Amino acid sequence: MQATRFNSGRGLCARRPGRGVLGLCAILLAASVGCNNGGPGPQLRDDPGPAASSGSSAMVGSLDEARLEQLGFRSLWKTPTGGAIVQSYISGGNLYLVRPGADHPYILEKLDGVTGLTLWTYALQGTLDSAPTAYSYPAELQGVKSPELFFVIDDELVGLDDANGSKNFSVRLSFPASTAPVADLEHVFLGSLNRRFYAIDKESRLESWSYITEDSITAAPAVGDANVYFASEDHTVYGVTRGGGYVPGRSWRYETNSMITASPVLYGDRIFVSSHDYKVYCLEDTGPEAYTRWSYPCGAPVVTAPFPFGDSVFVVTRAMGDGGASWSLHAINCIYGRLQWEAPGVSEVLAADGVHVYARSNEGVQAYRIDNGQLDWTLDLGGYDQVLGQDAEQGRNTAWWGRMFLIDDSGVVEAIVPNR
C-alpha cells in the first residue's frame, strides 16, 4: 500500500490532540464521477433489478452469499472491468487498477470504493513503478483545488486530476524512484535507490530539496503537520521539515538495529515503525528528537507497515527457516507496548472493525477477535486471487470499517462489507 496515516478517533492512542496530516491530506476523497469510459458498470447488490443478476454466472470470482450472511457480511457491489488486472491499489477509499488496454498497452482505471462505478480511465505505456497515492486539499481549498493522484512510471512522475483523470503534469526524474510518491500542499515526496529522499515542488516540478541517507529508501514516507517521516535501509527513521528538509532543532534521526523496508505510520501523535531488528517502535516527535514511547520485540523481522486500530497496533513478522517463510500476526497494545495475542500463518492485515481484525492467510480471509485473538471464521476466496483491505484513513470512518475488495483473474472486482 501507500504512505499510511491512521486516526480512528477511537481508542486511547487517538485521544491526544497529536500532529495530524497536513490539511487532512489523506482524507477520504469525495466520490466524484469523471468520464466513464471503462468496462461494464457495477452490479449493486442492494438493487433487486435485472442488473443484479444478469451475467453473474459468467464471473469467475464468486462468494457464497449464504456463507457471507452467516459471517455477518454482505456483497456491496460487483463490477466486471475490461480485462485481467495486473496491479491493484487502494488510496483515499477508491481503487486504482492497471489492466491491458484495447488501444494502449495498459489502462489505469479508477473505481469508486462506495459504488463500484468506473470514474475514469487513463492510458499507460507500461505498468506502474509503485503504488499511486491520492491527495485531497484542505476543506477551505477544495472549491478551487481538485483532488490529485500521483504515480511513477519508468522514472517519470505523473500528476493527474483525480476527479476526472486528466493529466496535470509529468516530469522525468533525475533519480531512480523507489517508493510511492506522497504529497502535501506544495510538494511530492519520494525516496530513491541512490540513498536520497526528495521533495519535488508541485508548481515548478523541480527538486525543492533532498536529504542523503546511508542506504536505499524503499518505504513510502508519511506526511505530518510540520515534518515528513521516512525510513531507510540504513536502519534509521528520519523526521525532517516538509518545506526545507533538514533544519537544526526541528529535524532528527532515530536508529534501529536493522534495515527498515515498511512505511512508518502516523497515529494521533505517535509514529509507529517496523524494523527487521525484530522490533516495533512507538515514537513521538518532540521537535529536536524522537522520543521512544516503547519498543516491542516480536521474535522475527517485522516486514509489514504497522496497522493501528483502536488501542491496538497489528504487525506481521516473517521468519525464514529450512522449511521456508513462517508468518505471524502480532497484536500489541499501542499505549504500553505489550503483546495482546499472536496468530501464526497470517501474511497481511486487511481491515478491522469494532470486533474483528481481518487478515490474509493461505486459507483465505480470517477474522480474529481484537480483544483476545480468537479465530472466529475463515472465508474461502472462491476464485478471487487478489484482496485489497481497508485504506489507512478509513479507520476514522465507521462506515468503512471491515470493507474489503476481492479481484479475480478475469478482472471482476467485488466489495464486501460487514452487516451493521
Question: Please, could you describe this protein's structure?
Answer:
The radius of gyration is 21 Å and the shape is globular. The chain has one helix at 65-70, and strands at residues 4-6, 43-44, 73-80, 87-91, 94-100, 106-111, 118-124, 133-135, 148-153, 156-161, 167-172, 182-183, 187-191, 196-201, 207-212, 222-223, 227-231, 236-241, 252-255, 265-267, 270-274, 279-285, 290-297, 307-309, 312-321, 324-333, 339-344, 346-352, 356-361, 364-369, 375-379, 384-388, 404-408, 412-418. The chain is mostly beta strands and 420 residues long. The protein has a domain at 40-80 and 345-420. The protein is built from one helix and 34 strands. The strands form eight sheets. The protein has a five-stranded mixed sheet, with no helix packed on it. Strands 2-3-34-33-32 form a five-stranded antiparallel sheet. A four-stranded antiparallel sheet has the order 4-5-6-7, with no helix packed on it.
